[in-house]
């Protein structure tokens, strides 16, 4: 989160351009360090995750009843992405119903996307993860509501559905909860345009509104995982009013950014539509069959896994108890030390007696 | 309290009952029966564990001189009777013996060349004590005591003297502190009184001056002011003198105690670039989305020190944050961004464009 280093009436007389080797505040954030990928990297991460998950689930099926996994059609990476996108599009509706501000909504969408870069849909269904991500977002964006109030607004959920996943979501995010959002950058662009010497005073509000819708649309794409929030904001603004955007970019000496955001603009226009409900329903139906049985509470595989874990834990405990018992009984509880001293004593006495 | 044999029960005091009369035929109705409390029960030099004697009886029996004990015929003196502090007579006896031994055998660890000999000495002493308490080998034990006493007469007396000194010094310190406290209290009192007197004197002076009525009210006031200032100066001088004295005292003490040098604290200084040169703040902006805040500047919107200017600055900073951070380009080497002109590549391979 950008820390306001100085108030408007700043102490330093003349702000300086960056020196070489001086890092920017954005570069110090975890969003820059850990959650920034290229398009290629994103797709490779998703496919490898998907393949690993399919292999694991296949094994579980095989262990349960050999041969059953051959006719199960697992999801592929694109279908997973579709499902995630669908549930991400549900978040704004939920936020509107509960009255959460835009920050919460944006944070929740980010969390959902990041979670599914580390986990697969077949292990954890997005419905519950979406609710958990939203609950977590209310907390990290400083708009917390009690779990009971939250659950009462959402039909057919109980607190444990959400709270069970909360730690998992946090862990998958690497406990990095701060997300930099484009809508604040967009507001900043709008304010800063007013400081341009020759800005047109009319219609800026309309432009701003349009740009805002573009930013909202961009949340359904992978934009925030590839570009920085200010670039997304500039792209949205540019879609709304290319002239103003280029004017502003020029004034910031960053006209090369305009080229960078061209593909981003395409992405916002093309990728940001919520997926077709029919397709999603289809995927969901198939998901029911290829879900990872280990994660379903009450299934055989789950119980087997639990038993396995119990066994290892019990073994560890037994080993430790054994160690302690040995120390107490077979050795002197105070250690070998004193026993040796006694022997030394006897030896000394003997030597003295023999002395003549 | 009936015992098995009540021979000598009058001596032992076992026939003393609360509120009852002695069954002892010798005691007349006039003799008051003492209530048996711990302060009145005496443990005497009797071997019998329940050998308690009441103070009255002791007085009665031994005023005329030493008399033989009816059981063991040992002569007892009144002086030998001591008040009992412990419920259990055994404990009382042991404590008495240990007290006597401790007076005689008071060598310390420093008096011995090594730990072994010290422990041997302690064991010897404990041996003697044990024998005395349980009445075994009394003669031999007494011999040993005499021997040891002879062997270390000087050391014993030296140790005894040292302990006395220590106790005396403790007391002296306590007294000194008490004295200091008293002094301070006196001082405070004196100061208070002085203040009161001064005020009195001032008033008197004012009255005097007015009475003289040669000067006008103004002049009187000025006089009083001048007078007050003089006194202030005197008081300050006095204070300063005292402080100086205290300081020199402290310095002397500090020099003696050799305080360690205090290394100056270097605060954490991070050196981030915050894009201050990329924007200039206007005093106000057109911001319809925050109309309520701008109208109610000094009211409820000011809670928690919120200032809309800070929010604007933060927004504008987000707008320029990371504007020049190029997305990861797959075609080139994975960690290199596209290089523009006059840019430096930072550690993570991402570029901050210097001012072009």
From TrEMBL, chain A:
UniProt xrefs under SUPFAM superfamilies: Cyclin-like
Keywords: Cyclin
Homology family: Belongs to the cyclin family.
The keyword Glycosyltransferase appears for this protein: no
Name the record gives this protein: Cyclin-like protein
CDD domains noted in UniProt: CYCLIN_CCNH_rpt1, CYCLIN_CCNH_rpt2
Molecular-function annotations in GO: cyclin-dependent protein serine/threonine kinase regulator activity
Cyclin-like domain span: 89-171
InterPro entries: Cyclin-like_dom (IPR013763), Cyclin-like_sf (IPR036915), Cyclin/Ssn8 (IPR043198), Cyclin_C_2 (IPR031658), Cyclin_N (IPR006671)
Domain of life: Eukaryota
Biased composition (Basic and acidic residues): 325-346
Comp. bias intervals (Acidic residues): 347-356
Stretches the record annotates as Disordered: 1-24, 325-356
BP-aspect Gene Ontology terms: regulation of transcription by RNA polymerase II
UniProtKB/TrEMBL annotation, chain B:
Biased composition range(s): Polar residues: 20-36
Domain MAT1 centre intervals: 76-267
GO molecular function annotations of the record: cyclin-dependent protein serine/threonine kinase activator activity
Keywords: Nucleus
Region (Disordered): 1-36, 231-263
Basic and acidic residues bias spans: 231-241
Gene3D superfamilies noted in UniProt: Zinc/RING finger domain, C3HC4 (zinc finger) (3.30.40.10)
GO cellular component, one term: transcription factor TFIIH holo complex
Subcellular location: Nucleus
One Gene Ontology term from the biological process aspect of the record: regulation of transcription by RNA polymerase II
Pfam families: MAT1
Alphabetized NCBIfam families for the sequence: cdk7 (TIGR00570)
Protein name: MAT1-domain-containing protein
Upper taxonomic lineage: Eukaryota, Fungi, Dikarya, Basidiomycota, Agaricomycotina
């Amino acid at each position: 989160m950008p820390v306001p280093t100085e108030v408007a009436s700043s102490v330093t007389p003349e702000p300086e351009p960056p020196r070489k080797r001086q890092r920017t505040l954005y570069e110090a954030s975890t969003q820059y360090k850990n959650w920034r990928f290229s398009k290629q990297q994103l797709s490779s991460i998703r496919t490898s995750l998907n393949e690993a998950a399919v292999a694991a689930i296949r094994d579980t099926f095989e262990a349960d009843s050999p041969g059953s996994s051959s006719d199960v059609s697992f999801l592929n990476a694109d279908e997973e992405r579709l499902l995630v996108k669908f549930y991400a599009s549900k978040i704004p509706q939920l936020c509107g119903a509960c009255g959460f501000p835009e920050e919460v909504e944006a944070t929740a969408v980010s969390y959902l996307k990041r979670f599914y870069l580390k986990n697969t849909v077949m292990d954890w269904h997005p419905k519950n993860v979406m609710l958990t991500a939203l609950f977590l977002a209310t907390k990290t964006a400083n708009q917390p509501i009690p779990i009971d109030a939250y659950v009462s607004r959402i039909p057919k959920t109980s607190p444990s559905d959400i709270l069970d996943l909360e730690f998992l979501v946090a862990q998958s995010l690497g406990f990095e909860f701060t997300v930099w959002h484009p809508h604040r950058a967009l507001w900043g662009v709008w304010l800063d345009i007013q400081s341009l010497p020759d800005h047109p005073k009319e219609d800026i509000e309309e432009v701003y509104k349009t740009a805002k819708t573009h930013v909202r649309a961009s949340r359904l794409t992978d934009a925030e995982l590839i570009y920085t929030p200010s670039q997304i904001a500039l792209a949205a603004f540019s879609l709304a009013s290319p002239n103003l955007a280029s004017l502003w970019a020029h004034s910031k000496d960053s006209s090369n950014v305009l080229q960078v955001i061209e593909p981003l603009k395409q992405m916002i226009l093309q990728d940001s539509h919520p997926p077709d409900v029919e397709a999603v329903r289809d995927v969901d139906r198939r998901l029911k069959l290829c879900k990872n049985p280990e994660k379903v509470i009450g299934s055989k595989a789950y119980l087997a896994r639990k038993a396995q874990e119990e066994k290892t834990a019990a073994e560890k405990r037994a080993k430790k108890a054994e160690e302690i018992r040995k120390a107490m009984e077979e050795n002197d509880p105070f250690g070998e030390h004193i026993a040796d001293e006694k022997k030394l004593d006897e030896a000394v006495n003997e030597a003295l007696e023999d002395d003549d | 309290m009936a015992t098995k044999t009540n021979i000598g029960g009058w001596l032992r005091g076992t026939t003393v009952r609360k509120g009852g009369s002695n069954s002892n035929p010798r005691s007349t109705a006039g003799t008051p029966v003492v209530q048996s409390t711990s302060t009145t029960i005496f443990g005497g030099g009797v071997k019998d564990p329940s050998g308690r004697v009441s103070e009255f009886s002791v007085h009665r029996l031994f005023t005329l001189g030493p008399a033989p004990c009816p059981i063991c015929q040992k002569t007892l003196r009144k002086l030998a009777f001591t008040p009992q502090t412990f419920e259990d007579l055994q404990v009382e006896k042991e404590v008495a013996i240990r007290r006597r031994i401790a007076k005689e055998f008071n060598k310390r660890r420093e008096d011995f060349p090594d730990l072994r000999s010290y422990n041997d000495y302690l064991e010897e002493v404990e041996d003697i004590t044990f024998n005395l308490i349980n009445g075994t080998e009394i003669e031999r034990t007494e011999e040993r005591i005499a021997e040891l006493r002879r062997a270390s007469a000087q050391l014993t007396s030296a140790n005894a003297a040292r302990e006395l000194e220590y106790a005396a010094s403790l007391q002296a310190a306590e007294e000194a502190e008490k004295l200091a406290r008293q002094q301070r209290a006196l001082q405070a009192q004196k100061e208070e009184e002085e203040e009161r007197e001064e005020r009195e004197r001032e008033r008197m002076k004012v009255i005097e001056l007015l009475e003289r009525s040669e000067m006008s009210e103004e002049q009187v006031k000025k006089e009083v002011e001048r007078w007050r200032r003089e006194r202030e100066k005197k008081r300050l001088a006095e204070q300063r003198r005292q402080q100086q004295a205290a300081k020199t005292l402290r310095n002397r003490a500090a020099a003696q105690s050799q305080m360690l040098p205090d290394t100056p604290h270097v605060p954490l200084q991070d050196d981030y670039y915050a894009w201050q040169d990329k924007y200039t703040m206007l005093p106000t902006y057109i911001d319809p989305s925050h109309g309520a805040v701008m109208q109610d500047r000094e009211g409820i919107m000011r809670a928690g020190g919120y200032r809309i200017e800070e929010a604007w600055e933060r927004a504008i900073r987000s707008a320029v944050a990371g504007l020049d951070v190029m997305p990861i380009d797959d075609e080139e080497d994975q960690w290199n961004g596209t290089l523009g002109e006059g840019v430096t590549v930072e550690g993570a391979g991402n570029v901050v464009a210097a001012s072009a």
